[in-house]
Amino acid sequence: MSADTLPPFNPHPLLRGGHRQTLFAYFVRGRVPRYSAVCHRVDLPDGDVLMLHDDCPPNWGPGSPFVVLMHGLGGCHGSAYIERIAEKLTTFGVRTFRLDHRGAGAGARLSKHPYHAGRSEDVREAFQAASQLCPGSLGALAGFSLSGNMLLKMLGENGRMGYSPEYLACAVAVNPPIDLGLCSEALRRSDNRFYDRYFTKMLVPQVRERIETFADAPRPGAGWAPETLRDFDETYTAFVSGFESLQDYYERSSSAQFVESIETPTFILTGRDDPLIPACSFEQLPSVPSVAVHIAEHGGHLGYVAGKTSDPDRRWMDWRVIDWLAQHLRFSRGQR
User: Fold this and answer.
1) What is the distance between the alpha carbons of residues 150 and 335, in angstroms, rounded to a whole number?
2) For helices 180-187 and 246-253, what crossing angle results, to 10°?
3) What is the rounded CA–CA span in Å between residue 312 and residue 44?
4) 0.85 cut: is pTM over it?
5) How many angstroms separate the CA atoms of 85 and 2, rounded?
6) Out of 97, 102, 106, 136, which residue is the most buried by the measure of CB atoms under 10 Å away?
7) Which domains does the chain have, with CATH numbers?
8) Would you place residue 166 in the very low, low, confident or very high pLDDT band (cuts 50, 70, 90)?
């Protein structure tokens, strides 16, 4: 599969437009699979914790492939798109690890520091932990939204260091915010005010919970009450994560600058009508032999709910991710 030969995405006739695609996919989860994963704790060098939710098919054995799925901002292992894709992969015999970033999901009270767009080292630690649980198996990473940026940054850093994880076969990044400054500007548009307020209202209580749990957790200044995600990043994320300023955080953490150094076969999928992430940031990327970029005309942010489709269901995004993984991990969509 190449980015130029993907089956076309035809949006459902009732879900035309980036906002409709984005909001439908978020609020209409569909069937929720029963949780049956085994949870693994990943201790980080700074004392914080990641959690891996291990969905292992009954027919999986040594040498069979595995995939690490990573959620976006405010998500966790239970995010709808993560659960859907994990369930599909396990039906094809692929062992799947659903990651909870620092302070997310099962790790809500286990980390004193926040995850953010630049924590590529956490992606590296998560893959290494999964690989150790699957010795001798080929693996892959799939990052969605914010995790997609973290993943691309890690892959580019690996390329610059001349480092290639032995068992990392490929990677997928879906709707990654590769230029954080542009994304911040997009959120300030009046039609994006709902998303801006939603993220901020969701993140602020998480910070307060972290401070209540850890007496020595880094904390914002007195009277802290951010009203936008940009304010949140400036007065908390950048401030407590060691960046000199908001601009320093955005510039150092944006993955666009790392893409040219990626050597691992990587697929980047985004939508031209994504309300949160401007498509122009992808059009400016250099051509890299190992990186396939596809900008769908429609799909919104992690939406891609199709009308007419040749796929088993209407979740077009899921199947494009699975197709790329199947190509490089050498499993068949017909294998059940």
Assistant:
1) 31
2) 120
3) 39
4) yes
5) 20
6) 97
7) 3-179+260-329 (3.40.50.1820), 180-253 (no CATH)
8) confident
